[in-house]
């Protein structure tokens, strides 16, 4: 479970720059390179007012940095060191993130995501999420509580980001649906209450 923010919905900062947060280790399963490709597609479409912040560390760091330089995206994508959890939640709470993207993949070795806590946390703050049809992710966002795309598909990622930037009604709908999903199914307080009821029901049964 996750603790749902007390704030009803975070009001996004009215900044001209659309900020995308990617809170994930720099490893193959997280699919960063497909998001870099998506960024290149968006820039070619003249969507220049967008910035991606990769918060993570891992063995693919130098490789990803090289791709970013080669594709001339250093203005648009920053790879930053992991930040403390409280700092990330502060960014969400202050409305400094417009979108969280997790372009996860199933690796050739068959490794895939469970249900990523990073998505649950973003949704709890009413921040729209984009992720892929892999592992446990569909269980979290297949009902319109986020935007789900095919894995390893930069064009689908780019289209989803573009729609969230240009269609304010769609953005708001995803934001509200995501938060409601977490309140309904993943709120730590509700889950604790359910567990307590279950324990009490066992205790009340005749021995």
What would your notes on this structure say?
With 207 residues, this protein is α/β, with parallel strands linked by helices. The protein has one domain (18-204): Glycogen Phosphorylase B (Rossmann fold). Helices cover 45% and strands 13% of the residues. The chain contains eight helices and six strands. It has helices at residues 32-44, 61-70, 85-93, 117-124, 137-141, 154-166, 168-185, 188-204, and strands at residues 18-23, 50-55, 77-80, 99-102, 129-132, 147-149. It has a six-stranded parallel β-sheet, sandwiched between helices. The longest helix has 18 residues, at 168-185. The two termini are 32 Å apart.
End-to-end span in angstroms? Answer: 32 Å
* Coarse structural class: alpha/beta
| CATH superfamily placement | Glycogen Phosphorylase B
Query: Which radius of gyration do the C-alpha atoms yield?
Result: 18 Å
The major pleated sheet works out as:
6 strands, parallel
Note the overall shape. globular
Q: Helical amount among residues, as a percent range?
A: 40-55%
Fold blueprint:
Layout: E1 18-23, H1 32-44, E2 50-55, H2 61-70, E3 77-80, H3 85-93, E4 99-102, H4 117-124, E5 129-132, H5 137-141, E6 147-149, H6 154-166, H7 168-185, H8 188-204
Parallel strand pairs: 1-2, 1-4, 2-3, 4-5, 5-6
Helix pairs in contact: 1-6
Which key phrases capture this entry?
alpha/beta, 45% helix, Rossmann fold, single chain, 207 residues, 8 helices
């Amino acid at each position: 479970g996750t603790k749902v923010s007390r704030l009803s919905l975070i009001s996004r900062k009215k900044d001209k720059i659309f900020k995308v947060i990617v809170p994930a280790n720099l490893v193959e399963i997280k699919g960063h390179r497909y998001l870099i490709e998506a960024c290149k597609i968006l820039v070619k479409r003249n969507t220049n007012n967008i910035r991606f912040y990769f918060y993570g560390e891992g063995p693919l760091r130098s490789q990803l940095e090289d791709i970013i330089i080669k594709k001339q995206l250093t203005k648009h994508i920053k790879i930053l060191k992991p930040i403390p959890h409280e700092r990330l939640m502060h960014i969400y709470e202050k409305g400094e993130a417009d979108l969280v993207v997790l372009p996860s993949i199933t690796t050739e070795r068959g490794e895939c995501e469970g249900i990523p806590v990073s998505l649950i946390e973003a949704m709890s703050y009413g921040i729209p999420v984009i992720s892929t049809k892999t592992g446990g992710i569909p269980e979290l966002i297949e009902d319109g509580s986020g935007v789900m795309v095919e894995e390893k598909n930069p064009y689908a990622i780019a289209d989803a980001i573009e729609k969230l930037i240009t269609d304010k009604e769609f953005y708001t709908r995803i934001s509200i649906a995501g938060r409601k999903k977490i309140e309904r199914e993943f709120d730590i307080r509700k889950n604790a209450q359910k567990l307590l009821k279950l324990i009490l029901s066992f205790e009340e049964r005749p021995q």
